[in-house]
Amino acid sequence: MDFVLEFERPIIELQKRVEALREIERSTGTDLSASIEQLRRQAMRLEEQIFEALSPWQRALLSRHPGRPYTQDYIDGLLTDWVELHGDRAGHDDQSILCGMGRLDGVPVAVIGHQKGRNTRENLHRNFGMPRPEGYRKALRIMDLAARFGRPILTFIDTPGAFPGIEAEERGQAEAIARNIMEMSTYGVPVICSVIGEGGSGGALAIGVGNRVLMNENAIYSVISPEGCAAILWRDRAEGPRAAEALRITASDCQRLGVVDEVVPEPRGGAHRDKDATVRSLGVALRRHLGELRDLSADELRLDRYERFRKLGAFVEEIVAAEAGGIEESA
Q1: How does the average pLDDT of the chain come out, rounded?
Q2: Which among 139, 172, 220, 317 has the fewest CB atoms less than 10 Å away?
Q3: Regarding the domain delimited by 60-315, which CATH topology (the fold level of the hierarchy) does it fall under?
Q4: In terms of pTM, does the model score above 0.85?
Q5: What is the average pLDDT across 131-153?
Q6: Where exactly are the structural domains of the chain?
């Protein structure tokens, strides 16, 4: 992947120098191992320094990196007997959402996930990962099918948000999202949602109501994109880094606030550095949570999901109440 983020550039330059020295060593037979090792260690130290102190904005940029694994990569790496299913049975098939059936270690599962493209042509085909109403209705059809036949549901979230075009509004975008949220709360099968890149607003929530919500280390989850927030608050999209800091969009923030249940580690340098390792890492977490949830009855699964989402916000309310009490005491 040739795409390089600005804060990655110093690391990439050092790695290129290492490769250049290795090529000289191969072509001339000169022993440059000491210089190569010195540069390699320098690159590793620099990478460690940069990636241990990433800002929320830098993580937002990583979450959008075109080299990250997408839903299809997780399907290819984790499932067998995969069959993609198409159409909302009302005349449309939205390519920004992948749906289908497969097996995870022999267990039949349904999979629903946002799908972006790697280049301009693919992104136009996938609508840049922004579903229209028919995409969410296709997802609902497959989830209903899975619930009817007792198959666990796995969703992969990676979207800037639902498509905001006027035609999507005309075809009932808000209703489609709301219906998915409502129906997902009622399923008597395990539902595990994974935020693998961008988790943007209602476009993410429409396939995000699960018994467990997992999040990759450099993914983001937010009610609005940092740039969109900045455009509203400061009328300047360039204030995106400032908005990213305020929105608490990172995986560690979301876990601390109870929005997600587990942060899944990525290879150092981000998921795009080693897609296979990233897929395997999430697969380990999915198998563990699915094993726990399969022991619950349908009613227990519904109650578990209900209680999970009812708890959201309690932590913040307790802080506010405590602060209010402190103010009264000091008065």
Answers
A1: 90
A2: 317
A3: 2-enoyl-CoA Hydratase; Chain A, domain 1 (3.90.226)
A4: yes
A5: 96
A6: 6-53, 60-315
